[in-house]
Amino acid sequence: MPKLKTKSGAKKRFGRTASGKVQRNYGYKRHLLTNKSKQGKRLRRGTTTLEKGDAKLVLTYMPYLRG
């Protein structure tokens, strides 16, 4: 059985939590921050988990994260 390739963009952006959910970072916090509200920037700190349907799609890109 040959090795399966992971999408390199996905491995940089997603990870797995201890309970098995797919984790992601928030977007929209890199530049033009003066135009964004303080609350919006604060809410984008840290990470969040993907919804079930999105997680299923992401796991197709990452075969070794599935098992």
Question: How many angstroms does the end-to-end distance come to?
Answer: 16 Å
Q: Helix proportion of residues, in percent?
A: 25-40%
- The arrangement of helices and strands along the chain is HEEHEHH
Strand content: 5-15%
Instruction: Give the class from helix and strand content and strand pairing.
Output: alpha+beta
CATH-level-2 architecture: Irregular
Q: Which features does this protein show?
A:
Factor Xa Inhibitor, alpha+beta, single chain, 3-stranded antiparallel β-sheet, 39% helix, elongated, 67 residues
Please provide a written account of the structure:
Strands 1-2-3 form a three-stranded antiparallel β-sheet. The chain is built from four helices and three strands, in the order H-E-E-H-E-H-H. The chain has helices spanning 8-13, 38-43, 52-61, 63-66; strands spanning 14-16, 22-25, 47-49. The model has no long low-confidence stretch (mean pLDDT 94). A hairpin with a 5-residue loop joins strand 1 and strand 2 (22-25).
